[in-house]
């Protein structure tokens, strides 16, 4: 994936993303923390759709995009720490 980041003076930042297959979208982060996902069609410069996300919604969406949910990642880390410290049989 190719990602370009730009600052929008006084507004926030925008990340333009192009997937391996050529699909394009952008993530706009406003100064107040709001997020908008912009979806483009073909090589057009204007987005065909905008999806506004609240901070909590953006966090939930980001968690879904991880290869494993947060509770699973925490449990994995706990198991690794237990192995390192020898507490494998901790209740």
TrEMBL record:
Potassium/proton antiporter subunit KhtT-like N-terminal domain location is: 1-68
Query: Could you identify this protein by its name?
Result: Potassium/proton antiporter subunit KhtT-like N-terminal domain-containing protein
Output the InterPro entries linked to this UniProt entry. KhtT-like_N
Task: Give the species.
Answer: Nocardia speluncae
Q: Which domain of life is it from?
A: Bacteria
């Amino acid at each position: 994936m190719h990602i370009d980041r730009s600052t929008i003076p006084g507004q926030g930042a925008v990340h333009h993303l192009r997937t391996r297959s050529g699909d394009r979208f952008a993530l706009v982060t406003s100064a107040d923390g709001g997020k908008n996902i912009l979806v483009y069609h073909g090589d057009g410069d204007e987005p065909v759709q905008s999806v506004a996300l609240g901070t909590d919604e953006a966090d939930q969406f980001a968690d879904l995009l991880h290869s494993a949910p947060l509770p699973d990642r925490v449990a994995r880390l706990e198991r690794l720490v237990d192995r390192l410290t020898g507490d494998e049989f901790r209740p």
